[in-house]
Design brief:
The chain has 21 helices and five strands. The chain is of the alpha/beta class. Strand 1, helix 1 and strand 2 form a beta-alpha-beta unit.
Length: 470
Amino acid sequence: MANQLVWFRNDLRTCDHAPLSEALVAAHQQNSTITAAFIWSPEQLQQQGAGSPKLAAYQQALDALNDDLAALGVELQIITAPSWQQGVTDLIELCVRLDVDNIYCHYEPGWDERLRDGQFHDQAPEQMHLHRANDLYSAPPRQLLTLQGNFYKVFTPYKRNLLAQIIDTLVAPRPAPDNGLPAQAAKPLALGERFVWDNPMQLPVLEQQAHERLEDFMDQMNDYSSLRDIPARAGTSLLSTSLALGTLSSRQVLWTIAQRQALTSSNAFLSEILWREFYKYLLAWRPELCLGKAFNPKWDQFPWQTDPSLLQRWQAGQTGVPLVDAAARQLNQTGWMHNRLRMVSAMYLVKILQVDWRHGEAWFARQLADFDFAANNGGWQWVASTGVDATPYFRIFNPHEQSRRFDPDGDFIRKYVPELAPLANKAIHQPTPELALALGYPLPVVDYKTSRADTLVKFKKLGQDYDQHH
């Protein structure tokens, strides 16, 4: 008798989980057993950039998944390994021991992920089959091509094609399966060291939390376009950690939106969800992005600054630019940063402090509970003008103007940079040297106008030199 195993990855849920549903059906039809497994390798995740907030969120989601699977009569086995490579070997040994011939999982893009699955195919016995579902995407990447047969490098036509494919084919997400197996008592998971993240913003992490938050957010989605850029307001969905862990799927979000509104290109929240898919789509075609490669190598030779204090002051929220510092402190204190501020903060690091975008990418990865490699890398390369559909090199956010526009009363700055709280609304966005010194706030680490002009000159020259030689 061939038994079944569900290999969980970044999909820590029981609802809308095709591999779990298919494995349960197969187990019922064949009167076989079903087991679930997860390779827990903090070392591998840390190598990919994850820090304590993401690792702690993983552990919380795994604990909840363990309970949910036990209620379905399925045991979750944790394979603890120093790497995915060792974990795959241990997984195959587990399958041999349990007489498992069919392993069900989701396809994942990425360099290490491809190596992991390739190793499974190389090492697994001939009768052992890996069944991979494409549920990570609303449409499989190889179905989304330009008229010339290439993958998309610009978001808008990608979105248009994707919406055209799914608008009439989107089906209701699968509910948690009811397989009729007797519930089990959940055994505590052996996850080793417990990582710490206090989650002070109460970001939804677990599957049930994600569903509750999604439903609550639908009631305010009409205000999303007007509120999403104001960091002092609760105008965003806060679902990024759930989406990064897979305790909520993008299809569940799309279906929920479709029950309230039409799936149109003008829907701002829908576009943000599809941006996440777009960056994962790119990894399916360009997995070498996981190796620190720029999508567009044209700007690879930019003369980045090597003074470590520039990066350190940006990380600590001590640049002397209030909105940038408030964003950094929010990240350090909560494990999350408002999306508008991710762009403002990143652009300041790359195009004003002239620090290599990869250092910023690594810091966000380490600090974010919602760290998702594709979204993080895509966002940083967009800011640095090295990525797909990136902002032109000459587009540089002025952080002071961004502050006046999106935090006009200084509420967000006052919350995270309390030393500036006594200042009037007009002064708080760009305090004079006298006011800053009097309040114990640092002077700007660089002169914004001078540095901006220098960045533009360097980018222009680099582009000219590249074009001459290519």
